[in-house]
Amino acid sequence: MPTVATPSRARKPAAPSARAKRPAKPVARATLTLSSKNYSSWSLRGWLMARFAGLDFDEVMVSPDDADARKELLLLAPSIRVPCLSHEGATVWNTLAIAQYLDEVIPGARLLPEDRIARAHCRSVSGEMNSGFANLRASLPMNLKAHYPKHRIWGGAKPDIERIVEIWNECLAAYRGPYLFGKFSGADAMFAPVATRIRTYGLPVSDSAMDYVDAIYSLPAFQEWLAEALKEPWTVDRNEIDLVRKTA
Q1: How far is residue 190's CA from residue 50's CA, in Å, rounded to a whole number?
Q2: pTM of whole model > 0.85?
């Protein structure tokens, strides 16, 4: 019995998806708000983190006449809001928060070590630097232009310096340098301003600690920051006057 071909039915075109892709909106470039490159240790920390994470960003410098920025530099503010990162709708301040955010959103940022135990160690020493060492901050402010090798080290700052050097020596021995956890990490960004204080004030530290200071200074990113700091035209008069009086 002959077979009869059945005409095929034309398929209806698929209805447009309700989730049809729209043209992507251009993403605003990230910005990092900073204050002084000569005096602001917190700005240095956030900037190093963003650079080593590979983030493409624009710098927004706070005016030296900004009252809130001056309070932060003089340790008179109730909290520190600079540096502040703006990235794809997120606003992040506090250097530890910036480090954690960058580690989450940028694959390969590696601001934290891959090993679980080393990562926990890195978080701990970074947190200690973030919240501690108030006497060091108050008596030995960051000042990249200055050199005060005979500056008197007040008693309250000495235990801070000793503890920081202890942290450095332990990390350098455990992870074999040249940075605290072998490769550069968020912990190095946190402690970089202390390295500058050791040079500025000629602080007595161990040979391994001084090697670490030299490693921080040899970073091309740090050298870039330092060059900009040395060109900064303005000063925090109160800090400069106090330092001159203390070293007289």
Answers
A1: 12
A2: no
